[in-house]
Amino acid sequence: MGFDVLLKGKNMLRLLEGLGVAMKISLVSVVISIFLGIIVGMLMSQKKPLINVVTRIYLEIVRIMPQLVLLFIVFFGFTKLTGKNISAELSSIIVFSFWGTAEMADLVRGSLLSIPMIQYESSKALGFSRLQTYIYIIIPQVARRLLPLSINLITRMIKTTSLIMMIGIVEVLKTGQQIIEANRKTSPGAAFGIFATIFLLYFLACWPISCLSKYLEKRWEN
Amino acid sequence: MEEILKIEHLKKSFDDLTILEDINLSVKKGEVLVVVGPSGCGKSTLLRCINGLEDIQEGKVILEGNIINPLVDRKSKYREKIGMVFQSYDLFPHKSILENVMLAPLKVQKRKKDEVKKEAEQLLDRVGLLSKVSNYPRQLSGGQKQRVAIVRALIMHPEILLFDEVTAALDPEMVREVLDVILNLAKQQRTMLIVTHEMAFAKAIADRVIFLDGGSIVEDSDPTSFFTAPKTDRARKFLNTFEFEKVH
Ligand SMILES: Nc1ncnc2c1ncn2[C@@H]1O[C@H](COP(=O)(O)OP(=O)(O)O)[C@@H](O)[C@H]1O
Ligand SMILES: [Mg+2]
User: What 3-state class would DSSP assign to B155?
Assistant: First the structure.
C-alpha cells in the first residue's frame, strides 16, 4: 500500500515540513489579507465613484485570473522586468495576499453594508459619537459576520498552496511526489499511501479551523 | 409653564424637494403633543430634524434656550437630552437586553455601573421585562422589543421623548402593551412628541394635536376640538379615512 515508505528514513518528517511551508505561506498571506482587506473594504463601503471603479477592476482581475497564472506572472515576470530574482516564497505571499485582500475586502464591504442604517441612527440618537458607534455597535456586529467567513478563507488558502510547487517551492504535495519518485523501484504502489497521507494532513490542518468557524457562528447567532 | 422645545421657521428639503416648510412649534414641560397626518407628509422627518438625524436648511431648533441645529453644533451633547424610539426595531442585536439599556448611560454619560444597573432593572421591571434581562433581542416579541427601546431611551433621563409610530410594525395584539407604557409616561408628566396612527390612543393621551399635511402644520389644537370639529377640510378628510360607513 505504501505506508511503509513513510516510515523509511525521514519521509514522514519531510511531508510534515512540506505542510509547514504551506501553512507558513498561507498564514502570512492571511494576516496581510485581513489587514489590507479591512482597509480596502472600508473604502469600498464609502461608495465613492473613483474608489468604486478601481476596486471593481481589482476584484474582477482577481476573479478572472487563475492563481497559477498570477504566480507565474509575479515569479517569472518580476525577474524578466527587473533582472533581479524574487524568491518563490515571496512571490507566493504576494499572490496570495493580492487574492486574499480582494476576497477579504469584498467580505468586509458586504458585512458593513449589511448593518441596517437604523443601528447607526439609534446610536446617534442615544448620544454616541461616531467613533463610539463604530467601537461598541458596528464593529462587534461586523466582526461576528466576518470571522466565520475569513476563517473559511484561511482554509481555502491552505488548500490552494498546493499550486506553489509549480514555481519550485517544496511543499507537502511536491514532497510526496519526490518520495514516490525515489521509491518507484522498491515500492511501486507507494503513491496511494502517500497521497492518502497528504489528504489526511490537509484534513488535519483545515478541520480544526472549520470547526472553530462553525463554533463561532453558533455562538454568535444572535 | 416652562418652555422646553421651540422650533422656529424650520425648513427641510432633500435636494430640490422641500419636505417641511416654515414649521413653528413650541412645547412646554410636561406637555404631550401628538402629531398626525397622512403618510409621507413629513412626520418622521420632523422628528429626525429635532434630534439632529437630519440637517435643516432654514430655521432653528431650540432646546431649553439653546440652539441645537446640527449645523451650528455638530457635537451637541444635547442629543442625549432628546430620547427617540423608532418604528423599526433597533435594539443592538449583539447585546443582551440589560446591556442594550446600560450601554449608553455607561459610555455616553460615563455614569457608575452599579447605579446604572440598578436603574436599568427598575425601569425594565416597570415595563414587565425584568425576567428578560439576560435574553437577546431576537428572543423577544416585537412588543417586548419596543418596550426595551423605550426603557433604553428613558435611562438617559431625556428632557423630551420622541416616538415615531412605535406600534406601526407590531402585530395588533401587541400594540396595547406598548401604548400602555407610553400612557404611563404621560401620567408621570413626561414631555413627549408622539407620531401615531392609533387615533383612539391619540385622543386619550394628547394635550395638543398637531395635524401635518403637505409639509406644514395645518392644525394645532386640543384633542377634543380636533377630533370632533376639525377646522380644515384637509383634517376632516384625513380623519374620515379612519371611519367606516355602515354596510347596511
Ligand atoms: N432621505 C430622503 N431623501 C429623499 N426624500 C426623502 C428622504 N426621507 C424622506 N423623504 C421624503 O420625505 C417625505 C416625508 O417622509 P416622512 O417624513 O418619512 O413621512 P411620514 O413619516 O409622515 O410618513 C416623503 O415624501 C419621503 O419620500
Ligand atoms: Mg414616518
Answer: coil
